Amino acid sequence: MSVYLVFGGSAALLCSLIASLYPSYASLNAISAGDELATHNWIVYWVVFAQFSMLDVFCDRLFGYYLIKTLFLLFLALPATNGARILHQHVIIPLGSRIDQL
Asked: DSSP letter string over 53-85?
């Protein structure tokens, strides 16, 4: 699959499916179960995902981009890595604070 994400014709579609299907499913399950911690974690994922999507417009022509993007989005989404929370705390919150000060 990694070779397809580098050279495949529908790499953007495959990457988008990987980045959105599981997080959407897990988000809905967290909301349905009333699990506030899991719901909060998925909201953090979607905030980081939205910020990343703004950069996505400028980077999609780079060689191997969809492989790198898929790995990055898996890092954000997987509970074992807790990547969305890490980026939220160390990048997005400080940037938001700077913007608020303007």
From this structure: HHHHHHHTTSTTHHHHHHHHHHHHH-TTTTHHH
State pTM to two decimals: 0.80
Which residues, 6+ apart, have CB-to-CB distance to 57 below 8 Å? none
Closest CA to 49 of 31, 30, 28, 22: 22
For each of the chain's 102 residues, which pLDDT tens digit applies? 666 666 667 888 888 888 899 999 999 999 999 999 999 999 999 999 998 888 888 887 788 888 888 999 999 999 899 999 999 999 999 999 998 998
Residues in CB range of 76: below 8 A, 6 or more apart? 45, 48, 49, 52, 83, 84, 87
User: Where are the chain's structural domains?
Assistant: 2-101
